[in-house]
## 1
Amino acid sequence: MQLVHRVALVTGAGSGIGRATALLFAREGAKVAALGHTADEIEQVVADIHEQGGVALSIVADVAHASQMRDAISAIEAQWGRLDVVFANAGINGVWAPIDELEPGDWDQTINVNLRGTFLTIKYAVPLMRSTGGSIIVNSSVNGTRIFSNTGATAYSVSKAGQVALAKMLAFELARDRIRVNVVCPGAISTEIDNNTVERDLDEVREPVIFPEGKIPLTDGRPGMSEQVAALVLFLASDVSFLITGTEVWVDGGESLLQG
Ligand code: NAP
């Protein structure tokens, strides 16, 4: 077990990659604070962790809301008095649309959840992490880091690129506190993110790009699974990756190599 005696926060833990990571962290011995903005989803994840013999706390909060995130970290401090691992994972696809149809409110919503949310998660977590050091893992994407041909995913890709700059700035700043900061960049993963996606008139702007058979070379085109991303997050959370900070790792079966 790689996370015994550790306390981990997972945002967006109610489904998809966050849920798989929360369950894996708990199986590896961590006490897990599972945070999301939909109470019944978060309570279900906590119940599943308890069922597998783990320890977990449910926190209902919106990652884009400063005082809710400050309170979330206070709740972890009150419960366990420390925080070793943070997986800043909560995110939305938001509106994917041509620039003419991408409204200022659409832009703000995506940037607020994905980028401001990541900033707030880390900002309020760091003071509690300083006494022990630890590992922060940010969930970015192939979009905005290697793929720039998903026309319409502009706000999303900008938010994902911004997360990488945020992580690298903080990897340097926080090294003296023995806090590592790394980024995972998944390709297509089967999750519930389509529920958080609005596509508007993309046929008008997408260039016709012809790919070889199947867009994911390693899997003959099949999307990845949340558990495969969670395994990478565990590696970056654990002491095995002690010397690794300030870097992205793509977890996409080679998808972004085709399109980059
Ligand atoms: P998902 O199943 O929709 O999970 C996202 C989770 O974040 C959901 O539980 C969602 O809760 C929660 N969430 C959304 N907005 C939130 C907010 N403001 N405050 C708190 N929680 C919030 O999708 P996923 O694919 O696992 O996505 C996780 C991360 O992976 C995202 O950052 C995404 O950009 C990234 N990613 C995904 C893929 C992919 O192909 N799936 C690829 C690259 C990167 P509700 O469902 O209740 O809204």
## 2
Amino acid sequence: MIIYAVKDYEEMSRKAAAVMAALVVSKPNAVLGLATGSTPVGMYGKLVEWYKNGDLDFSQVSSVNLDEYKGLSGDNDQSYRYFMNTNLFDHINIDKARTNVPNGLAEDAAQACEEYNEIIRSMGGVDMQLLGIGGNGHIGFNEPSDVFEKETHVVDLTESTILANARFFESMDQVPKQAITMGIKNIMDARKILLVATGEGKADALYKSLFGPITPKVPASILQLHSDVVVVADEAALSLIKEKGLL
Ligand code: PGA
């Protein structure tokens, strides 16, 4: 595991973008596993900037995203498809037909999950999977649990997530109660993992994930078993690891 300790969010964004850009340059038809959330927004901004400068070409790149809310269409501004379009895809020359996000509107969600696994397999697997990390150690929507869920599956959102999301919707009925997420095996099958973390709120999760026992109670701890992990984290996110003299 390589840990890049950087100063702040801006440096994290630049470094993480550089790691992904290096792959896109060396493998123009790379399969990128992408993530949503506030952490990668700055990184996506850098990739857009470098594309606009003529330094990156995404025309042959394909992508698969980690997760999507169940019940939201891609034009809903709270959906992860919308997030990806507005933060990245609309600003680069990626072929949208080659970008994949789980279908939140599928009538048969179990079948949609199977199809998503099949999409990942048919692309030949993921070259680099980008991950944010939850304050509780979650990756994608794989929340702390008694078991590691293997492949793409439907998850019930926790009450606190539903309440936290409520502010973005007009009424409680519109707030998604479930999501579709890649499972731990899908994530671990990626040839390389790029984990990004920023801020004090991630310090405990990062310490437990990188140095604690490997347990589904801290889903990201499974990454200790992956042979090619790059972590890009800022001082605040690494504060507990540094305090314990592990870095
Ligand atoms: P965040 O989310 O980037 O918005 O902190 C990360 C995550 O929960 O995976």
